[in-house]
């Protein structure tokens, strides 16, 4: 069982080249739960994830990992508690699948700690759970976009951190593999108690798979809580600019957004 770690932000402002993207945001990620961050394009979702993962230094405010400023902690300490799958990860030329997934074990290595059977087991489990075992000896640059995405997820899983941040983990995946990946993340949360935070474009998948939703617009959080409380026709209108009807998902009873186009109205 993974130790539960806590991630929060206080008065967090994030900017690129002087342009504020996330402004004065306060946030507490529910530990041991699955959180989805949703919102329209360019609303600050990915920027927030980069700030929470320490990839982006705040213009002001603080990101707290287990109560400490994340920027005050040693890099290896952060890497053993928090893993990140960025939106567009890049791999060294020619690296194989097995070698890339193995890099997820680097934070667990030390000056005197060599590769162990535990590392082998973590890599094998991560590759098996993401369905990439048969690709172990293939070069990353030979794979399809969907295969590469699953390999990157395997690397993040092999890191075995208490918090896992994923920016659009279903990118490049067809609907079958989208469901596989999201089911896998729920399994990880259930088996290890891992805290999962993911940016998703698909509001219906977010509502189905997340315990906690964070809806963003223009760099601010406009709503957060359980999907049944957050996903309303008013929120979809205010955040996405779309008129919709909210009905119960016939499988999970979670909110299901049925958008109304210009050529469709309620009868």
TrEMBL record:
Secretion signal span: none
Gene Ontology CC entries for this record: plasma membrane
Cellular localisation: Cell membrane
This protein's name: Cobalamin/Fe3+-siderophore ABC transporter ATP-binding protein
Residue ranges of every copy of the ABC transporter domain listed in the record: 7-243
Topology of this chain in the membrane: Peripheral membrane protein
GO biological process terms held by the UniProt record: iron ion transport
UniProt-recorded Gene Ontology molecular function terms: ATP binding; ATP hydrolysis activity
Source species, domain of life: Bacteria
SUPFAM superfamilies recorded: P-loop containing nucleoside triphosphate hydrolases (SSF52540)
Main location: membrane
Organism in which the protein naturally occurs: Leifsonia poae
Keywords noted in UniProt: ATP-binding, Cell membrane, Ion transport, Iron, Iron transport, Membrane, Nucleotide-binding, Transport
């Amino acid at each position: 069982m993974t130790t539960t770690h806590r991630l929060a932000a206080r008065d967090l402002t994030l900017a690129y080249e002087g342009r504020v993207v996330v402004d004065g945001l306060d946030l507490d990620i529910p530990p041991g739960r699955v959180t989805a961050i949703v919102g329209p394009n360019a609303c600050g979702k990915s920027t927030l994830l980069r700030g929470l993962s320490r990839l982006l230094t705040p213009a002001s405010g603080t990101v707290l990992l287990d109560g400490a400023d994340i920027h005050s902690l040693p890099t290896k300490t952060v890497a053993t508690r928090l893993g990140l799958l960025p939106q567009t990860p890049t791999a060294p030329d020619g690296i194989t699948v097995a070698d890339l997934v193995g890099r997820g074990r680097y934070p667990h290595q030390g000056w005197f700690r060599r590769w162990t059977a535990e590392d082998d087991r973590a890599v094998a489990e991560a590759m098996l759970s993401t369905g990439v075992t048969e690709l172990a000896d293939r070069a990353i640059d030979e794979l399809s976009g969907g295969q590469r995405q699953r390999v990157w997820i395997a690397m993040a899983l092999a890191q075995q951190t208490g918090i896992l941040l994923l920016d659009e983990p279903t990118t490049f995946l067809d609907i079958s593999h989208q469901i596989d990946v999201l089911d896998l993340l729920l399994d990880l949360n259930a088996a290890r108690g891992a805290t999962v935070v993911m940016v998703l474009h698909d509001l219906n998948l977010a509502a189905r798979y997340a315990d906690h939703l964070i809806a963003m617009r223009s760099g601010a959080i406009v709503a957060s809580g359980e999907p049944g409380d957050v996903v309303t026709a008013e929120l979809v209108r205010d955040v996405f600019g779309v008129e919709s009807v909210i009905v119960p998902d016939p499988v999970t009873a979670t909110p299901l957004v049925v958008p109304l186009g210009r050529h469709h109205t309620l009868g």
